Amino acid sequence: MNKKNIFGALALATVAAFAMTSCDKSKCQVDEKKVEGKQAVPSDVKIAYVEVDSIMSQYKFCKDYSLILQKKGQNIQNTLAQKQRTLEQAYMNFQQKIQQNAYTREQAEQIQMSLQKQNSDLQALNQRLSGEFQVETENYNNALRDSIQHFLAVYNKDKKFGLILSKAGDNLLYADKAYDITNEVIAGLNKAYKPAAPAKEVKAEAKKK
């Protein structure tokens, strides 16, 4: 038995011995009423909820960075598609020259090896760009979560809600609209939001189209 387990066992034994010697059966009883009083949930707990779909569609941060991710994803697709077309055309030309006996055996082998390397490079590029896009998407999601949590922490200093729920689709079976604070939250988020330079540039380009 290691030291940590020994100390743990000794501590448990000490507690048990103290409990047995300090109270007899008639006196050592749990006051159930006091325990229940400590664990009882206050009856005046304030609850609110926020519509997640509304935040995604109306929060300027979401709209701006959706455009950024959309543009980046489209650029990746265009880059990969262009390289794929170039490689396919080179392979077709190679096949035609082979049929025309335009290459020596050594030349054909070298060109084939070059085409195979280009294909391997394209697959590696696909994986790298996809990984970068996934990381950027995760960073966006983390930034979105952090911005909402930070705002709610400040917002709730005055509101004093004991619980703020997120409502997405049918995850809440029933929610009275009286507890809906979505509009207040969106207004506060948009007021605090300061778009970064990339967001401004992408938004300006979108308006020109």
Automatic annotation (TrEMBL):
A Gene Ontology MF term for this entry? unfolded protein binding
Q: What superkingdom heads the lineage?
A: Bacteria
An individual GO BP term: protein stabilization
Keyword annotations for this protein, in alphabetical order, are: Signal
The UniProt record lists the keyword Flavoprotein? no
Q: Does the keyword Cell membrane apply?
A: no
Cellular compartments per GO CC: cytosol
Spell out the family assignment given in the record's similarity comment.
Belongs to the Skp family.
| The protein, known as | OmpH family outer membrane protein
Lineage summary: Bacteria, Pseudomonadati, Bacteroidota, Bacteroidia, Bacteroidales
